[in-house]
Amino acid sequence: MAERLAASAATLRASAAAAATPSARRAARASRAFFPPSPASSARARVGLRAAPSPLPQKARAVRCAAVAAASDVAQVKAAREDIRELLRTTHCHPILVRLGWHDAGTYDKNIEEWPQRGGANGSLRFDVELKHGANAGLINALKLIQPIKDKYPSIITYADLFQLASATAIEEAGGPKIPMKYGRVDVTGPEQCPPEGKLPDAGPSSPADHLREVFYRMGLDDKEIVALSGAHTLGRSRPERSGWGKPETKYTKNGPGAPGGQSWTVEWLRFDNSYFKDIKEKRDQDLLVLPTDAALFEDPKFKVYAEKYAEDQDAFFRDYAEAHAKLSNLGAKFQPPQGFSLDD
């Protein structure tokens, strides 16, 4: 136990040191991509798992993954889903698990054919070099939350699948739609295969609509999918000391759940519904966060068509969101078997 705590402390000290550089601070303020860091993410998992080995050093993890070229096993992925559900019930970490899956997949570049150079959902976010990207600030906490689950099935579930499984399960357990997921993603084997920094969206660019299109079009996503995916901001909250955005505390966040504080986009920020669109449209409350990229959804004429629709029709939002989330989760992935597999077959 002492060795495990020491290893965790060393990891956090290294991350803090990296975050202290001027370039990292600037990137962290400007770039919080899909979800700013969640306060709930600092809680350690308290799920009923079998005793698991200490997290391996990064080099050892790379060697282990290189030795295990096979993708995940369907029965074990189903078992891991139950472990994730228990983790969600005990830690309220839905937002950061969604963000973990999205940020692993969101580096995809449709103009690059080779794997893993094209980025995407390949498990590269487990390596320190990518965790230290400004847009990924705080995601080391998400990795620590699910590492015991990975250790429970060390050679049977890939990180790439686990990240996407956690993200989809978090949406569903928060009351969102069933995501038509498939699994069998293959992991990259080392940090040299991580994508360069700067692939994820900024929260406050000078031209928000143009920036969203530049980033998401590069992934092969369209305007409808951009707006639908933005609706996942119905979950979570932002802390100004971490992201540079939001209030330190509001009437909706001062009592948690999880660590109190931050500013949420919606009143019930652990429930997945269409409140995000309704609240932006109605400008109902100064205690609710609206980033420049959020406001752009109702200011840009093409985005507004979908934002207005989702504010009025939650069923339509759920349908479009489920399709867009599944598409995002597959971007850049290499599957084994090539067609992947479903947990519902």
UniProtKB/TrEMBL annotation:
Record-annotated Plant heme peroxidase family profile domain positions: 97-345
Presence of keyword Transport: no
UniProt GO MF annotations: heme binding; L-ascorbate peroxidase activity; metal ion binding
Protein name as it appears in the record: L-ascorbate peroxidase
Source organism per UniProt: Saccharum hybrid cultivar Yacheng05-179
Keyword terms, alphabetized: Calcium, Chloroplast, Heme, Hydrogen peroxide, Iron, Metal-binding, Oxidoreductase, Peroxidase, Plastid, Potassium, Transit peptide
Compartments it resides in: Plastid, Chloroplast
A Pfam family that the UniProt record links to this protein: peroxidase
Catalysis: reaction(s): L-ascorbate + H2O2 = L-dehydroascorbate + 2 H2O
UniProt cofactor(s): heme b
Similarity section: Belongs to the peroxidase family. Ascorbate peroxidase subfamily.
UniProt record, GO biological process: cellular response to oxidative stress; hydrogen peroxide catabolic process; response to reactive oxygen species
Major enzyme class: oxidoreductase
PANTHER family: L-ASCORBATE PEROXIDASE 7, CHLOROPLASTIC-RELATED, THYLAKOID LUMENAL 29 KDA PROTEIN, CHLOROPLASTIC-RELATED
Signal peptide: none
GO cellular component term of the entry, any: chloroplast
InterPro entries linked: Ccp1-like, Haem_peroxidase, Haem_peroxidase_sf, Peroxidase_I, Peroxidases_heam-ligand_BS
CDD domains listed in its UniProt record: ascorbate_peroxidase
Compositionally skewed regions (Basic and acidic residues) per UniProt: 238-252
E.C. no: 1.11.1.11
Annotated region described as Disordered, given as residue ranges: 237-260
Keyword Chloroplast annotated: yes
